[in-house]
Amino acid sequence: MDTRHLARLAIDPAAKRRPQRSWVAIFIGIAVVTALAALLAWPRASDNIRKMAGKAAAAPAVPENSSSPANTIPSPTPAPATTPAKPADGSILTVSGYIINRERIEISPRFLGVVKWIGVKKGDAVTNNQVIVQLDDAEYRARVHQAEGALATAQANATRAELQLTRIAQLAKNAIESPQTLDDARLQLEANRATVVQSQGELELARTYLDWCTIRSPINGVILAKLVQPNELVMPQSFGGTRGPSTALVAMADPTDLQVEIDINEADLSKIRMNQNCHVSPEAYPDHTYAGHVAEIAPEADRSKGTLQIKVQIENPDHFLTPELSAKVDFLAP
Q1: In what order do the strands lie in the sheet with 233-234?
Q2: Are 135 and 118 in contact (CB under 8 A)?
Q3: Residue 22: inside a domain, yes or no?
């Protein structure tokens, strides 16, 4: 192809360039549109007057004696600021704890024995002096009979010694018996009387052991645990190991004597004092509230947790309060 023909087909460099004036016009147009939009969006006082169907709505009437302009709309009254109100019950501290029995009683036998009968189970309500366990008492009944026989023998010996002293005293008056014989008879009578007293003590001891075979409830309460079964060997104390005889028969507590055990953070101790009034509410029944007071403050803190144990006595508890469940305690201001 001829070079002259190619040269005719080439585009002039000046034709490739777009006019610079078109770009300037575009930028000016964008700026004008932006300024108009900002002007229209700027709020004006006349915007507060609503217009409908091309007619202005009636402005609110202004009293004649008012000094404010007729076209001024009153600004809305600001709402009063709300501040946190103090609880109605005067609570200054709320802490959760656990309901406990003030005293848990574990009844143990007084001597080694075998359970013959047990008449309660877990959850049973018992009354004071009610029989709950009977130990095998055959051995102690025999001891009672033995002590009764020994007492009868001692009493017979004392009676014989008394009669003998009376006879010797009569003979001594007639100088038939010597004064020494009379003294010996008197001493023998005193010794026999002492034997009677000793036999009476042994009989009382045997009867006491026999009475201890019948285990009675010391309080009005509820059985928390049944720790033995019939025919099981029990003893009053353990000598080590876990395979020895049981040392307790039942565990019980008074359901009307409950407390809430709480661990108070040391930062809140300044808010707690003895006999401080409280409100107790079980977590299971939050709509039930009970009066209480601080009954015990531990004399020693827990260093590892930085807490001090507090016990709150619940006044007039009922069946809604179950030991070992959680409860919320509100400590009231003085």
Answers
A1: 214-216, 131-135, 113-118, 233-234
A2: no
A3: no
Phi then psi dihedrals of residue 330, to 5 deg: -105, 115
Q: For residues 120 and 109, what is the distance between their CA atoms, to the nearest angstrom? A: 16
Considering the entire predicted model, what is its pTM?
0.60
What's the CATH number where 269 sits? 2.40.30.170
DSSP for residue 83: -
Residue 48 has pLDDT above 90, yes or no: no
Q: CA 303, 308, 313 angle in degrees (round to 5)?
A: 160
Q: State which residues form the domain around 205.
A: 137-212
Q: Count up the domains in the chain and report the number.
A: 2
Q: Render pLDDT for 256-290 as a digit per residue (tens, 0 to 9).
A: 999 999 999 999 999 999 999 999 999 999 999 99
**Are residue 266 and residue 324 in the same domain, yes or no?**
yes
Residue 197 vs residues 41, 92, 98, 140, 166: alpha-carbon distances, Å: 118, 67, 55, 20, 22
